[in-house]
Amino acid sequence: YDPSKIRNFCIIAHIDHGKSTLADRLLETTRSVAAREMKAQLLDSMDIERERGITIKLQAARMDYFASDGERYILNLIDTPGHVDFAYEVSRSLQAHGEIWGDACEGALLVVDASQGVEAQTIANHASRINRQVYRRVLGQDLEILPVLNKIDLPGADADKVAGEVEDVIGLDCSEAIAASAKQGIGIEVSPWSGQAVRGGQARSMTSAPPLPPSLRPSSRRRHLPLRALVFDSYYDAYRGVIVFIRVVDGKTLGELRKGDRIQIQFSASGAKYEALEVGVLTPGVGAGQQSRPVLRAGEVGYVHGAIKSVDDARVGDTITISAYKDGSAPPPTEALPGYREPVPMVYCGLFPTETTQYQLLRDSLEKLKLNDAALVWEPETSSAMGFGFRACCHGDHWQERLEREYDLDLIVTAPSVVYEVELNDGTVERVDSPAKLCDADKRSCISEPYVKMELFAPKEYSGTLMELAQQRRGERGEYRDMKFIGPERVAITYDLPLAEVITDFFDQMKSRSKGYASMEYQITENRPNDLVRLDILIAQEPAPPLSTIVHRDAAHSIGKKLTRTLKDLIPRQQFKVALQAAIGQKIVASSAISAMRKDVLAKCYGGDISRKKKLLNKQAKGKKRMKAIGKVNVPQEAFMAVLSLK
Ligand code: GDP
Ligand code: MG
């Protein structure tokens, strides 16, 4: 164990630029994985990830590397969620992870596809994170980012040009960038921190790699501090309980994390205490990628488990300290590492099985998912219109997909709603996580909603259209804060925005208005009172509470109009004419109607061929799957989401 020989780093890349391939190649080159064990893309372990080709969960891999200086180094590759392509929720978790990831490593490889370059949205999705890292480095935190210009084997690759782009767009020095081909093993063989520099023309060796920065380096002084380990990931294992991935930050001899020593560890945020039953390092290709070790010391990355019951006890970003040694004595109380933020669910949606018989199955499935996902919060919800279901915080669309895929459920998901704070006339304050639960206007004195500080990063030519987007959503709701140049071509625009506006199709709009070049990052800042009203929808005179939405009074009319018009296109025709109305209280503010269906859908197939008829019936059967009857009218899944993307 020599802390000066430990290198903890991660790989940042836009999707498809070669992050997984590079990781695999590093594992292979360091012989961390025997060739026959080499499955493509080892680090992407979940099924869904593999299928989508993205990395959702953080993982880590330890490699032993014998450098040309004759020394042995330990490389810990910490994998991080790679891209923000689905929804707003992901950007939130990325943000949290991004910071923790920054704490877990000292170096980052920025992989850029040299055949596409920065212009192809590469940096767009990561600009904010990279900028933050650059910023940290400026602050003297020794975060080293090494650009890797990948895919130089491709005929169209131009490493020099792309290096120039990286310098211009994010101001990252490329004089020591590595030209590589993860696929063909070029620029990989030596180490992630070496190889032929593109421009400097000087080969770097492993010894010039960034060691643990002084602030984090486990110097002798630091080793005499009581143990503190940062939790950067965890997952639930049915046999061993929660497996916790950690980076040991400080620890003296007694404070090292040892297995089987009856050392009691404590999670600072949750307060949970467990005995450390096993500790080890993360080595893909060995067992479950985990290899038991007698001890983990400061600077090392590994795992610990101790029959931990729930991921709720071991949250990402939390700190592990020792609460008692085996002789029963306790170390002095130790402060948690900075940076942990309690996850506060701020956005909820309704989950209803299309078949009422699936209610119990849905409950069981949610319970199983919860074991692995501390941020998943849910409670039963009964709706007169929808029957039995659940109200859950909607973060990430992947769990909804997992529910449907892994548990074979058919679900209707209602549009997400932020959590409003409502002050009632008697002075009590309640949290309202569903528009349907908002009391009538005369019973409350004040309603406030969460606001975010939104940063939009984009090439400067898109600033106008993005400002329009941020400002004019549903009636001048965004408040401009400022605009800064980051690099000669890019700007960062800051707005205060209601979170409710962000969870609509804001992300898609931002992408389409900027041709994919913009990215965003936001943080919830405060609750602000606003003149908000509930806009109800009536379908064939029946109220449809799951379609209700809370909007600013000034925008209610126009939203009502757009919503009824959109619903008209989304709800299939019935045997009878269906009126669609939008109302505030008793007052109808907009209406539209779906005309009755013609006699027989199959009529037009008379005399036609049978396969066409079958196709039509099939199509109807499929459509039915994701429908829920409200009153006499079948409402398809898309209609429940209509309010998110009003034209
Ligand atoms: P990720 O999304 O960043 O993890 O990217 P992957 O590692 O999955 O790579 C995306 C695609 O690019 C795959 O088809 C890889 O085979 C290919 N690829 C990755 N690195 C290289 C390279 O150096 N050269 C070439 N020609 N293709 C590569
Ligand atoms: Mg990948």
Automatic annotation (TrEMBL):
Enzyme Commission no: 3.6.5.n1
GTP-binding keyword on record: yes
Membrane-protein topology: Peripheral membrane protein
Region Disordered: start-end pairs: 199-220
Entry-linked CDD domains: EF4_II, LepA, lepA_C
GO CC list: mitochondrial inner membrane; mitochondrial matrix
Enzyme type, top EC level: hydrolase
Source taxon at top rank: Eukaryota
Example GO molecular function: GTP binding
GO biological process, alphabetically ordered: positive regulation of translation; translation
Keywords: GTP-binding, Hydrolase, Membrane, Mitochondrion, Mitochondrion inner membrane, Nucleotide-binding, Protein biosynthesis, Signal
Residues at which GTP binds: 13-20, 79-83, 150-153
Pfam families: EFG_C (PF00679), GTP_EFTU (PF00009), LepA_C (PF06421)
Domain Tr-type G residues, every copy: 4-219
Localisation per UniProt entry: Mitochondrion inner membrane
InterPro entries noted in UniProt: EF-4, EFG_III/V, EFG_V-like, G_TR_CS, LepA_C_sf, LepA_CTD, LepA_IV, P-loop_NTPase
Reactions accelerated catalytically: GTP + H2O = GDP + phosphate + H(+)
HAMAP family documented for this protein: LepA
Family: Belongs to the GTP-binding elongation factor family. LepA subfamily. Belongs to the TRAFAC class translation factor GTPase superfamily. Classic translation factor GTPase family. LepA subfamily.
Function: Promotes mitochondrial protein synthesis. May act as a fidelity factor of the translation reaction, by catalyzing a one-codon backward translocation of tRNAs on improperly translocated ribosomes. Binds to mitochondrial ribosomes in a GTP-dependent manner.
Protein name per UniProt: Translation factor GUF1 homolog, mitochondrial
Lineage start: Eukaryota, Haptista, Haptophyta, Prymnesiophyceae, Isochrysidales
